[in-house]
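Q: I'm a student working through a structural biology exercise. My instructor gave each of us a protein and asked us to get a predicted structure, then write a short paragraph describing it. Mine is Glycerol-3-phosphate cytidylyltransferase. I'm not confident about reading structure output yet, so if you can add a plain explanation after the tokens, that would really help. Here is the sequence I was given:
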Amino acid sequence: MSVIARYQGDFMHHVVGFSPGVFDLFHVGHLDLLSRAAGRCDRLVVGVLADEAAEELFGARPIVPAIERMEIVSNVRYVSGVVPLAGTGLREAHEAVGFQRVFTGGPDAPAAADVERELAGTGVAVVALTGLAETRSAVLRGALPGANPKASVA
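A: Happy to help. First, here is the predicted structure for Glycerol-3-phosphate cytidylyltransferase. I'll explain a few features afterward.
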């Protein structure tokens, strides 16, 4: 049974939230996103973008490999499950996981308008979380999107 298929039976009577992203160089902004998302659903499943897909989307491979990013995210207490995302398309993830809400807002997550267009007609609510915490670490901020996009997708 695939990792995604495993989650279908667990969430039959709950509001399942989904938060896609890269989650490279996990920091307080990621934690804020996941904490706030978890407070708006019964179960939160996180989709971690594969290294190749992140490289295609951002022009650089993540610093931390996908398998390690998944392990880190899976150990966050707000997260009920983690699934790998081979690409940025959310329809396949929606069909497999069956989420009712998608949370956006992180710098490495898709824009709310893009998610709404892609999931139109599915009944999925898109929740854009704003004002997320930012890391105070100058080193991490330098590696985050916008500082030097070719160095990392963190």
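A: Here are two points you could use in your paragraph. The domain at 16-138 is CATH 3.40.50.620 (Rossmann fold). The chain is about 35% helix and 15% strand. It's a good idea to check both against the output above yourself.
Q: Great, thank you!
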